[in-house]
Design brief:
The chain is an alpha+beta fold. The protein contains five helices and eight strands; from the N terminus they run H-H-H-H-H-E-E-E-E-E-E-E-E.
Length: 228
């Protein structure tokens, strides 16, 4: 799935911010568990485990999504992963409501105590984080889904990784992060050349301005120099 060029920069900034926020959130949960390891922990009413174990599970999940936002190249996949994670958190919160837990502050006491802030402030900060993850990822994915197909009329290649980039003619000449490798790429008029990979002999198409550049072959993944 091609990601609309108009959404590339916002999506890039959003996933980077998500990686930073979730890594910070996970680290906070881990520090809370280490600091309060010897204290009595309330039990989670849905999973029937101590909040200490629940924080480890939640922290590992958050850290996994943060790492994925850094190492995965496909923008749509990263946004879908963030949306999935945020949706699960919101479903969990509604599950607590169904169990009669209308105020989660009582279960956040150890986390609030670790950082010397009130349970109310902790609850507000976490709610804002979850809403940011959900609304941001959903809006970017929906915006890309609703983008008119006829707007995306040109294709070029990333000079860094050789990946295809689809974009509208109105964005010609702009610099955007490549949806595959995230490196800044200038959108140029497509003018394609062909060559065979030195290693696997498969055909590779690339723009004329990329001659002399080094890329990873999309077929065999070996590094090659583009020549006319």
């Amino acid at each position: 799935m091609n990601f609309d060029t108009a959404n590339l920069k916002p999506a890039h900034y959003f996933t980077n911010s998500v990686a930073a926020l979730l890594a910070t959130f996970a680290t906070g949960l881990f520090l809370c568990n280490i600091a309060d390891a010897q204290l009595y922990q309330a039990h989670d009413p849905l999973l029937a485990v101590s909040m200490n174990i629940f924080f480890w599970i939640l922290g590992l999940g958050a850290m996994s999504v943060a790492v994925a936002c850094i190492i995965i190249r496909q923008t749509c996949f990263k946004l879908a992963l963030v949306l999935w994670f945020a949706t699960n958190l919101i479903i969990y919160r509604f599950g607590l409501q169904c169990q009669g837990v209308h105020d989660a502050r009582g279960y956040l006491g150890s986390l609030a105590h670790t950082f010397n802030i009130s349970s109310g402030v902790t609850n507000i900060l976490l709610s804002l984080l979850f809403l940011y993850l959900f609304i941001g990822s959903a809006a970017l994915l929906l915006g890309n889904f609703l983008a008119k197909p006829e707007v995306i009329s040109l294709k070029t290649f990333c000079v860094h990784c050789g990946g295809h980039i689809a974009f509208s003619a109105g964005n010609l000449g702009q610099k955007v992060p490549c949806p595959h490798c995230q490196k800044e790429t200038k959108l140029r008029e497509p003018s394609l050349l062909k060559m065979s990979c030195y290693f696997c002999k498969e055909h590779i198409e690339f723009p004329s301005h990329a001659i002399g550049g080094k890329i990873r072959c999309p077929h065999c993944k070996n590094d090659i120099t583009l020549k006319e």
